[in-house]
Design a protein that fits this description.
single chain, YefM-like fold, three-stranded mixed β-sheet, 19% strand, elongated, 2 domains, 54% helix, alpha+beta
């Protein structure tokens, strides 16, 4: 979940929070104690999404309008 920060504090300390996120920290923004948002490093979120997308692509027997070589190129381009 990460460090919990109230919405007002997050607003007033946003530059500091962003610097810490660059160092791989995660923050959960709360509103009156209820979690409403997360601030996470983009690589953490992106890698999970990319892996999930690749797995979904592998399950398709055939993708209409996309050749096997084009599909492989799309998958490989995401690994860079």
């Amino acid at each position: 979940m990460g460090t919990k920060v109230g919405a007002y504090e997050a607003k007033t300390k946003l530059p500091e929070i962003l610097r810490r996120v660059e160092s791989s920290e995660r923050f959960t923004i709360t509103n009156r104690g209820t979690p409403v948002a997360e601030i996470v490093p983009p690589t953490a979120r992106g890698r999970v999404s990319a892996r999930a997308a690749i797995e979904r692509m592998k399950t398709f027997q055939r993708v209409k309008g996309v050749s096997g070589s084009q599909l492989r190129a799309m998958i490989e381009s995401d690994r860079r």
